[in-house]
């Protein structure tokens, strides 16, 4: 099994890299549906990252990394299909975003270490990635989270859902999020789950109240500051 169906992006994208692989490069469009998505990333210098490279010892922190153990033996396609049915992110973006959060130092993300040891770190990833491909997957994850968040909040703030419908929606998406956390190895106690659900419900009630005020009382654009006439409240 390979992950060619969701392989890393074309490494020829202009993404500057520091010598130690801890770069913080600008966000790059994931190009999920472009043909470049199906190509496996190769190192910048054109050298193969296959078996002809000298074997390097696996770093201690990589050997001790114990996330994703619950999907040990799972195929990439199955993980990816699960995510596609319930989220906007791919398996590759999920795994690499998690790794970038876990392998962050004071100087940046250890993208070289992540890319070179990807098959050791994540059971369903079978190929190494270039630092540029790691950065692109992380950037794609961040971009999708931002767009999904804006879409959700717009739906919540636009009176498309009743309070009860919004509660049901929040329950469904929270269950998916908790499952992904559990797959990563996070142990969620029942009390913690209930407390989190209560806090989320409270936040969403605040969102509804704030959106009512925004629709009926806001006088300027929150982005550009343009003065607007307040909307008239429904009878």
Description:
- This protein is an all-alpha fold and 235 residues long.
- It folds into 2 domains: 59-156, no CATH class; 158-235, no CATH class.
- 48% of the residues lie in helices and 2% in strands.
- The chain has 8 helices and 2 strands.
- The protein has a two-stranded antiparallel ribbon with strand order 1-2.
- Helix 3 crosses helix 6 and helix 7 (163-183) crosses helix 8 (190-217).
- The chain starts with 59 loop residues before the first helix and ends in an 18-residue tail after the last helix.
- Residues 1-55 have low confidence and may be disordered.
Structural class: mainly alpha
Unreliably modeled segments: 1-55
CA distance, first residue to last residue:
60 Å
Q: How many helices in DSSP terms? A: 8
| Global outline | elongated
Q: Tell me the β content.
A: under 5%
The side-by-side strand order for the widest beta sheet comes to 1-2
Features:
235 residues, mainly alpha, two-stranded antiparallel sheet, 8 helices
Helix and strand topology:
Layout: H1 60-63, H2 76-86, H3 91-102, E1 104-105, E2 108-109, H4 111-116, H5 118-121, H6 131-157, H7 163-183, H8 190-217
Antiparallel strand pairs: 1-2
Outline:
This protein is an all-alpha fold and 235 residues long. It has helices at 60-63, 76-86, 91-102, 111-116, 118-121, 131-157, 163-183, 190-217; strands at 104-105, 108-109.
